[in-house]
User: What shape does this take?
Amino acid sequence: MSTVDLEVSIGRLTLKNPVMVASGTFGYGSEYAGFVDVNAIGAVVTKGISIYPTDGNSAPRIVETPSGMLNAIGLQNPGFEVFEREKMPFLRKLRSKTIVNFFGSTVEEYAELAGRLDTVEGVDALEVNISCPNIKRGGLAFGADPQTAASVTRAVLRRTDKPVIVKLSPNVTDIVEIARAVADTGVDGITLINTLRGMAIDYRSGRALLGNVIGGLSGPAIRPVAVRAVYEVAQALDVSIIGCGGIVEWPDAVEFLRAGACALQVGSATFRKPSAAMEVLQGLEVFLKKAGHAMVGDLVSTVKVHGGGHP
Amino acid sequence: MSTVDLEVSIGRLTLKNPVMVASGTFGYGSEYAGFVDVNAIGAVVTKGISIYPTDGNSAPRIVETPSGMLNAIGLQNPGFEVFEREKMPFLRKLRSKTIVNFFGSTVEEYAELAGRLDTVEGVDALEVNISCPNIKRGGLAFGADPQTAASVTRAVLRRTDKPVIVKLSPNVTDIVEIARAVADTGVDGITLINTLRGMAIDYRSGRALLGNVIGGLSGPAIRPVAVRAVYEVAQALDVSIIGCGGIVEWPDAVEFLRAGACALQVGSATFRKPSAAMEVLQGLEVFLKKAGHAMVGDLVSTVKVHGGGHP
Amino acid sequence: MEAVHTQAEVTKRRTLARSTLLIELRAEDLFKNGQRPAPGQFVMLGPLKEDSTDPFLNRPFSIHRLSGPDRLELLIAVVGRGTTILGSLMPGDRLGLLGPLGNGFTFPEPSRPVVLVAGGLGVAPLFFLAEELCACGVQPRLFYGAGSVDLLVPTDGLQAQGVSVKLATDDGSAGFAGFVSELLAQELLNQETPDAYSAACGPMDMLRAVTDLARNRGLDLEVSLESRMACGLGACLGCTVFLSTGAGRRICCDGPVFRAREVFGP
Amino acid sequence: MEAVHTQAEVTKRRTLARSTLLIELRAEDLFKNGQRPAPGQFVMLGPLKEDSTDPFLNRPFSIHRLSGPDRLELLIAVVGRGTTILGSLMPGDRLGLLGPLGNGFTFPEPSRPVVLVAGGLGVAPLFFLAEELCACGVQPRLFYGAGSVDLLVPTDGLQAQGVSVKLATDDGSAGFAGFVSELLAQELLNQETPDAYSAACGPMDMLRAVTDLARNRGLDLEVSLESRMACGLGACLGCTVFLSTGAGRRICCDGPVFRAREVFGP
Ligand SMILES: Cc1cc2nc3c(=O)[nH]c(=O)nc-3n(C[C@H](O)[C@H](O)[C@H](O)COP(=O)(O)OP(=O)(O)OC[C@H]3O[C@@H](n4cnc5c(N)ncnc54)[C@H](O)[C@@H]3O)c2cc1C
Ligand SMILES: Cc1cc2nc3c(=O)[nH]c(=O)nc-3n(C[C@H](O)[C@H](O)[C@H](O)COP(=O)(O)OP(=O)(O)OC[C@H]3O[C@@H](n4cnc5c(N)ncnc54)[C@H](O)[C@@H]3O)c2cc1C
Ligand SMILES: Cc1cc2nc3c(=O)[nH]c(=O)nc-3n(C[C@H](O)[C@H](O)[C@H](O)COP(=O)(O)O)c2cc1C
Ligand SMILES: Cc1cc2nc3c(=O)[nH]c(=O)nc-3n(C[C@H](O)[C@H](O)[C@H](O)COP(=O)(O)O)c2cc1C
Ligand code: FES
Ligand code: FES
Assistant: This one.
């Protein structure tokens, strides 16, 4: 077996390998440090932060669904200052890169927080969440319209020299249109996808199973939607794509690479198995070696489309 | 246990009970006649038909996904004339109502076919498919924009006196907006939802697992998205909603009723168990009886939303 | 016969070759009123897990043999998630069965010589056909190829009934070294069988090669096709393939058996 | 102690009450370097099916007892899909285990009287606490209520170790007829226990009632809470509940044990 170069670039950001953990599913890294080798993966994407602390939604906040789960955390976070003081020291020590996911409720808040994060040592890139379905103001609204998405992105880019990734929502009529508007700003990469808007009800009591009623669907259930979004954007645009949505095992990661992603985020699967991301990485490396590929890029956008259908 | 009145009305259409089989998952009824008591259910919704025969997409056309499946049949159908001649005789003999699902590639084609179906004896209602993700022209395009959706619906309503139901796509930024435009035309009901656009790739070979590359995701995986769509539209509008998407067992049906649907369609679940719809109906009836409800309507829109979250 | 949807009980389970299991099912309903499935027909098994929606769809399998007045045998290659679950079934376990489905082979008149060609698991339905032919006094010849010897299912039972069996393996570990279509070409060169009936089941490339041969030698060939299925009975249009004429056919109910020239062209 | 993620082996499985199973797991890693879990801590079990993503999430269970140098017991009520799967595990089966998780009860000084209050499956962690107390020479009193006698888990083992047990059932089929909180109110009326430590686990309504009592009698009460969990270790923020002060707390790592007055108000 040959050796494989696992390094990947997402615009100006270089990772030692393409596997990350998705925002909101790995806390601020330290939570999982006792169980798994966090240093093995390419990057930790933090739980989304805002300028000021946010309480989040009322309980219940999660519920299981067929091959997936709904969450309505409501972007609970301790705010920028506590984040910098209490969460960054652990993240700085990691050999994996740190990507800080963040959100605001106005364009100005996004820009302001980007500016503050710009000065934080150890933050390797920013991931702009314009796609969270769980908050009333901001969030999804920014990700649902190409002009707004682009203006948030531009505002962020103006305030930071760090690489910027924008995370998009699948809850739109035409994701390519949004992605194009964002890519045209010169952003370093696009993460596809955040959760699908969903809901569940206890049939017996009639109670909505989330305090916030509507939440975000994640897990393998949504993988076909995520792979489709990656494929559509990769076919249409020349931008680095980070694939996310329902990756549980390494073959799922290969699927995203072939669809057009150049890097990956493992999300809810970590709840089933803390080592999910690390196992995806290992499996991917072995697959690449066995297939004789020299680098991750050899798989990117290698999906073959059928001709005909006649035998 | 008390008796339950299972009859439901969807605008001008009255069904003896709220359980139907979804378009495309039950052929034209006769296919399943040997296995299950088709007469038990409220209505059969036929596979979508067009004026002229349609070949559909190249193989493969289906692939399994976590708790669901993708299909890209491409609306294969024998065309109106063969449908009327060869499929209607069986459907006419049923004690369940017949709802004919149909599509066109222009507004005029929709209208034309509605006019032809209007004269067909035994057709109890029309279901207008403006939401199929598997055809290039028409289909989804009509369901993605409120104005277009409304004009297709109006064109159909002008050509038929039969009850008209419009089936919407979840692949839109704001389903309430589309539903409102359609409801304002005075349509009898709205079916929520058709499939989500998705895709899968064989990780080993890199081949897209559907001949058409992109297809429609159905099954329990999408139930949270469907329940959310029903809830949102039911909260916003006063229109009869037929809930569809991932119903496998009767508790799922109760969930849709509580979210705001007044009738239901069982789709892919029939592939697992030909009697799925009949079992949903039986379970629903027992549940209503045990809970002391006199009619199906007692459950409709009974979802309870949490207050607070403080213990 | 009319198909039924029933619960079957696993009555036997045995490994016949590498990753290849024989599973016997008791399913009285398939045999009621004196009916019986025909060679080439198949069944859908599932739901695979009653308490889980993943995996979601049922799986199609050819009827391999009828092993008793209320029993059928399936030959199952463990190739993925569904077949792994089926492979872990134990005698006494029950599971849903829909069948018999599909059209089956055109049973040839007893006077005609019969040539059967199997590639890999394609042998499954040909056992059933061969045994029915033997019961009618026909002694078919079976050409049967697989990757290597450990993938071959034992054929002594068939031979005892009078079937003459010729084996091929890709790696030469048993019988002819090469593809079964090559073995067939060699054998047919030496023998003229103009009015023979032939049935083939196996990978698409093999079926194409066998069809080419049949075309040249004037063999009357039927092939059994596979495709992904959801309903198994003509309702979903998921299994449609397009024939050489451009016409779409549902493998589950217009097939799985088709005239070879319809599929690959005259 | 530090939590671990490991594979545990089922070593015992017994029905203790209606739809209530005792499952013993061997999980050496939980005991390495002489560490051991503390009463009130819990574990997450899963994936529930290795070969299926439905059900998707792991499930939390309190540690019910330590039954050997490398073993722990769980008490599992079969209430839904996940617990049905867990209930079908047999000795020899293996499954993922993450733990021990959470903070556990504040172990009271040996001099203080201890009152334990359990509603239904809330008894699970209180067994562990009671046994540890007995080992330190404290003889706690356990008030234990359930719907009816067939739902009560046997307590003779605890009694043999010196725990005094008072039972309550909603239908009066065993012990006091009524809620365990009512039984407790009656008992506390007759006895003054001002410096007693108390721990309660059970349904929210019961905990609220017991907290009211504790407030009036000056009992020092800790309650163990439940909520839906995804990660079990503080990362997902899915288990957050809001205390009476309005502050959000993660049950999995800020709890599951909280001071009663923090939860329900002073
Ligand atoms: C009419 C018919 C008769 C069949 N008879 C037999 C038989 O007698 N013995 C036997 O072992 N197999 C038979 N098959 C194939 C069998 O259905 C598949 O191997 C099985 O469904 C794979 O399930 P899985 O979950 O293990 O594989 P998956 O994990 O779903 O996929 C593994 C591999 O199997 C292929 N596959 C998946 N589903 C099908 C399908 N429906 N048809 C064909 N290939 C598929 C996939 O392309 C993939 O390469 C038959 C198929 C058909 C259509
Ligand atoms: C810290 C903690 C300790 C626990 N200890 C025990 C224990 O020792 N023994 C025991 O039998 N149970 C215990 N539980 C509850 C147990 O986790 C649930 O009963 C179990 O997860 C239900 O799984 P299910 O798939 O069978 O139920 P589901 O089908 O998911 O749901 C059935 C019912 O269980 C409830 N439920 C589901 N998940 C949870 C959850 N995570 N927490 C609470 N309720 C839930 C649902 O609201 C529903 O009413 C504990 C829960 C927590 C949070
Ligand atoms: C509990 C939870 C919390 C999440 N929080 C965030 C967040 O703060 N910011 C964000 O951009 N995405 C958040 N997400 C979305 C995930 O990062 C990811 O996009 C999504 O879950 C799909 O991936 P998966 O299917 O692998 O989980 C969250 C997801 C979950 C399940
Ligand atoms: C194989 C297949 C074919 C379908 N064909 C049609 C169709 O012709 N017209 C239509 O409106 N919907 C069609 N649908 C969508 C279903 O009617 C239904 O809206 C969708 O599958 C969601 O429901 P389910 O999750 O219960 O399957 C089809 C679905 C499947 C799986
Ligand atoms: S499998 Fe449904 S039509 Fe053939
Ligand atoms: S369960 Fe994830 S934070 Fe508590």
Notes: The CA atoms of residues 128 and 252 of chain C lie 18 Å apart. Chain C has a mean pLDDT of 93.
